[in-house]
Amino acid sequence: MLSRYREYHGKGDAGAGTLRRQPLGVLPVILLLVGVLISPGRANAQTQNTCLACHSQLDPPLQVSPGDFTNSIHAQKGITCVSCHGGDSSSSDPERAMSKAARFRGAPERKDVPEFCGKCHSDAAYMRGFDPSLRTDQYSQYQTSVHGKLHAKGDTRTAVCIDCHGVHDIQPPSDQRSRVHPLNVAQTCSRCHADAAYMKPYGIATDQFADYSASVHHDALAIRGDLTAPTCSTCHGSHGAAPPGVDSVARVCSTCHVFQAQLFDSGPHKDVFGAMGLPACVTCHSNHLVQHPTDAMIGTAEGSICLKCHTEGDAGYIAAGTMHDDITKLDSAIARSDDLLGRAERSGMEVGEARLTEADARDDLMKARVEIHSVQPATVDRDIDAGLKVAATTYQAAQNALAELRYRRKGLLVSVVTIVFVLIGLYLMIRKLESKEAQ
Predict the structure, then answer these.
(1) What is the reported pTM?
(2) Contacts of 182 (CB under 8 A, 6+ apart)
(3) What are the domain boundaries of the chain?
(4) What is the mean pLDDT of residues 161-183?
(5) Sequence-distant (≥ 6) Cβ neighbours of residue 36 within 8 angstroms
(6) For helices 258-266 and 352-371, angle between their N-to-C axes, nearest 10 degrees
(7) 315-438: what fold?
(8) Which of 78, 170, 271, 371 has its CA 20 to 30 A from that of 32?
(9) How many whole angstroms separate alpha carbon 220 and alpha carbon 171?
(10) Which pLDDT belongs to residue 352?
(11) How far apart are CA 82 and CA 363, in angstroms?
């Protein structure tokens, strides 16, 4: 009866663009509502889910939490148990509910999971009904990945859809509860890649997660909450996961660090690294354990990464020392100016304009620190010289402000002394006048 009503009236917006027949009138609608209200058993039979009622009582791995499933993206989009497994979720008879007549398929075998999920997620027309922006190339991408290629060879231990996304509790990647939310991706990958026993047959190191957890990228993502900061899938891909080779590491890093990559390409290291088979960025910065860059990373002091390749006296050694000394010089000049401006500020002097100008010196310092990727001291010196001039100007402004402060203090002291002498003179004059009146 309800279907006939929908046939005539449409359902919500779905019938807005279709030809509608004339309404049946008010009385049939009332009869329809009354019929539903007086038939609770039938209404319950249409809405009950015996799949969840049964599986919520089973032990893992057959147990399914009704709460998890109800809150999943599939359930919210109207995807039910029978959508994936077939069967009849309205029947309380297990034999009927899981019968061939009801097209019960059960759970797919692990080897069939990617293709099983791909039946829907690779169907652009079908997925467009849920979200036109959703990609539908995940399965084809997966087939090109290391995971997919191993799976195609019969390796059922390698990752499939459910290992990363879950099964009955799948959430959209934008949901922080999702296993593939940016904050959770590294932890999800580590379930396999940090397990030494599990990864032993593949000969892959298992320290990636520990290194990443101590990196500047993890700090930006997990501590400072920058969801654009790199995580595993940012560099390795997600469905088309493949470890970047020597030639592609620089391209992966350059997607974020564009200017640094351009400077590196313009310098001598590009050809040298290529000839030696060294990956560009990783050689100096590592891959998973990327530390916050410091000035100590370059130069000739112990701990400098330049000393990994260069020895005392060679051109690279001299260039490294020059660039480090120049950057340190500008950093010290800015600190010296900043300290003096701070003293002036705390004394109540107006140095706002000098503070704004000082920001230019900091910009020059930042540029110089980036320019070192070109390994060209002359280019670095250009920014250093500009910054030193600005720092000298702001330092002079701070000196002038303090000189003005001293001048004001001297003027205040003279004024106070003068006022005191005037008051004393007035007091003596008043006393003298009072003495005369008393006589």
Answers:
(1) 0.77
(2) 173, 221, 227, 229, 231
(3) 315-438
(4) 96
(5) 2, 43
(6) 50
(7) Butyryl-CoA Dehydrogenase, subunit A; domain 3 (1.20.140)
(8) 78
(9) 24
(10) 94
(11) 61
Mean pLDDT across 83-98: 93
Distance from C-alpha of 314 to C-alpha of 268, rounded to nearest angstrom = 14
pLDDT score of 431:
85
Residues composing the chain: 439
